[in-house]
Amino acid sequence: MRKIALVNQKGGCGKTTTAINLASSLAKKGRKVLLIDLDPQGHSGLGLGTKSEQIETSVYEVLIGEAPISSAIYNLRENFDTVFSNVVLSAFEQVMAGAPERESKLAQGIAEIADNYDYLIIDCPPSIGLLTFNALMASDEVIIPVDSSSFSLNGLGKLLETIHVIEEKAGHQLTYKILATNVDRRTNFCNNMVETLRSQFHKNCFKTIINTCTRLREAANHGKPIDEYDRLCAAFRDYHGLTREIMRQEARKRARKSKEKRIAFTLEAPEDASVQIAGDFNNWVPERLHLTNSNGKPVWIRAVSLKPGAYQYKYLLNGSWIADPGNNKTVNDLFGGANSIVTV
Questions:
Q1: Which CATH number describes the domain made up of 2-256?
Q2: What's the predicted TM-score (pTM) here?
Q3: Which residues, including other chains, have CB under 8 Å from residue 116's CB and lie 6 or more apart?
Q4: pLDDT tens readout for residues 59-72
Q5: How far is 113 from 121, CA to CA, in rounded Å?
């Protein structure tokens, strides 16, 4: 399952519109899709014709562990399922304050249905808080909608810093692509913005752009994705193009994943410890591990995708190099000690 979060701390940049229309378009292409709304405003539900009072079980109950995600899934039509939210979700950060693994609740919740879908699309709130961190930790890919405003562009740098922090501190790798939205090609400002994005983020920009289109707002008001409201407008062509661009990545991602294996390196150590790992896979540059909890014990973890082969590594615990106590496979290093070795 490809897990994609739509993130930007600026509101009104097209996150929800893109989440709804991308999910719908993928479903029409025969892909099994689950759309999760992580915005307490519940705009995804509104944009799909569902009112908050119609929601019996929301994503909030899933996140706090009161209900399995299977009980919160609503089927809209063939290949298109959703998990909605409502205003109760705004209490999540307060309820989870101080809770262990609070940033991984969504990842834990979706584990049971991971094999049931081809795509998971997550619509995030317009902020970088605990809900967005949950979305990022549950995802492998990030789409960043950027509209033609200086506020959206300025927020892009902060969001990329957040992604880097998650990769560095949690050991969770993310790929991202920027999507230009609400583009009015009649104005020099919008044209210059698109060119700026493409020049600065060449490999991380979608070729597709989403042009300004009144029919998108009309479709949302009628509770329909654009492919059910007007298949002749520019917005339908734009989201159809975005869908094709994303689907073209499928073969490359399958080939890459078939050659790689996700290895979780873990070390039991006190909560106040400094724990890093270095090895052949990162040029022996120490990288931090993420603190979690396992059966009431503090455990440090970092997941790494490795191609087939043998890799030597060591932990750096409070400034001292140690071999992995949970791995009895070692080789001598150059300094009279031993390196642990993992084979993929």
A1: 3.40.50.300
A2: 0.74
A3: 1, 32, 34
A4: 999 999 899 999 99
A5: 13
